[in-house]
Write a structure and sequence with these properties.
By secondary structure, the protein is mainly alpha-helical. It is built from five helices and no strands. Helix content is about 75%, strand content about 0%. It starts with a helix and ends with a helix.
């Protein structure tokens, strides 16, 4: 869990690395898990703290898009490796 948590950051180099990892190995439960957590976290940064009605439409759309991508990756990770604990946590986190 700590390894995955260490990669859930907004640093462009880390994001570029994990995106490249995912692009190279799109079926990897590990790459899917890390990218799902990153996208889930980024979605809330894009949305901001305002209520949904006060959030700009572009931010709401981006939030929804990132949430949907994270969910797809979380489900892929879990289906590939249900015994990989961070994948199961990603699936749970993405359902909220």
């Amino acid at each position: 869990r700590n390894l995955v948590s260490g990669l859930i950051v907004s640093h462009p180099d880390v994001l570029a690395f994990t995106q490249s990892w995912y692009d190279t190995k799109p079926n990897s439960p590990y790459a899917n898990t890390v990218r799902a957590f990153q996208l889930y976290t980024q979605s809330f940064s894009l949305r901001g703290d305002a209520s949904w009605n006060e959030t700009p439409v572009l931010a709401r759309n981006s939030f929804t898009e990132f949430q949907n991508m994270a969910m797809e990756m979380a489900l892929n990770a879990y289906e590939s490796a249900p015994d990989f604990i961070p994948a199961s946590l990603t699936k749970c986190a993405s359902t909220y």
